[in-house]
């Protein structure tokens, strides 16, 4: 029922708000005029979208608003060729009627550009593609910014959008409170990036004007004021943004971009690169579906975090999770895998869930570590520049978090050190055993007999060697010391002291026995 209600609400919003789609199906190099009207959410698509755009294209749009209004442009899809200085496929936005006005942005690659807005009633956008590479393209949205004290609306279910203070970029009104809630589809999370930020400064806990961000449990993730732009926030599948102004002092307010998805690229065309240790922004890569394989590249002397998708660890898609991380770094460097935590409720063996780390780039490479159940730590290091990590669980609530670091490798392989040592130890042990056996054979007497001061003894196999005292004597029996070398008939097998070494030939000791008078 909730999904049906959400669909009806989304349909109602789209029916209420007029929407114009500008489809650039043919770009002939001319300028297409587009008129922006208040209370409309309008869109511009790249040529051929959602299919790849064509080579050698040149498309131009001039967006015009009514007198006294400004125009805001933001993107919800952006996938262009990536190159240095964006001298290949690109989107350029200018603050005026044509490309001879001040440039507001120039973008390429696959990261969403920051939203921009005009200082006047006109804004000019140009898309250019070369003859080398074509990709999916872009979806841009534009809306009118007007002098209004109301709280700007967002479109329910949109994969990306903007939130800004009332009357932005002019001063926000006094005593105003606004609240926006962003919900991502199951298994995805919400990402916030602040673009502009200028609120009243407070010396204690932002008690005057502020922006507050809460997660789906209404736990505060941040409360901001002043003029410093807050750091980006990524959390669970739902975020709430609150704005509050008091009865005095107003400023230009804030503008932020929100996205929903599994991961958010940093701009690299193939690999996702991550910040080094010194960064205060945590970058991570996570599982994103029932079964997936993720390639992660770690820059030399830096680290990154990999994790499952559950709440703070992000959410895993029920009923189970299975994902693979193929991690690599620069040649000459090794990868250090440090497990920070792993939790598998109700699972106490590897049959229902595990995390395996292999020394290489495939599932057939040597196993460095296997973790099962609930584990709080564990560290392994690769011998090369690749690691293969597999996380598998029968339960959707299972989760883990680990850090992978790139460290300078040694020129000497571990195997080159360990193998010679093992061989040397084995050879030494064999030689020692041979020498010992040779000494024993030389010093031993004839097989099946022993001598004690020339007294013949029974074979050892028939003699119980225990730690005991002399045999008990019958009452009235005379005990004597029998001097050698006379033979003495014995009524029972001789009990040898436990300290006697039977292999060392002759040993002098006293034998106690029963003398039989004849």
UniProtKB/TrEMBL annotation:
Species of the source: Pocillopora damicornis (Cauliflower coral)
The name this protein goes by in its record: CUB domain-containing protein
Keywords: Disulfide bond, Membrane, Repeat, Signal, Transmembrane, Transmembrane helix
Residue ranges crossing the lipid bilayer per the database entry: 414-435
Lineage, broadest ranks: Eukaryota, Metazoa, Cnidaria, Anthozoa, Hexacorallia
Domain CUB: 27-145, 151-261, 287-407
Gene3D superfamilies according to UniProt: Spermadhesin, CUB domain
Matches recorded under InterPro entries: CUB_dom (IPR000859), Sperma_CUB_dom_sf (IPR035914)
Region forming the signal peptide: 1-24
Top-rank taxon, per record: Eukaryota
SS bond partners: 151-178
Any Pfam family matching the protein: CUB
Presence of the UniProt keyword Phosphoprotein in the record: no
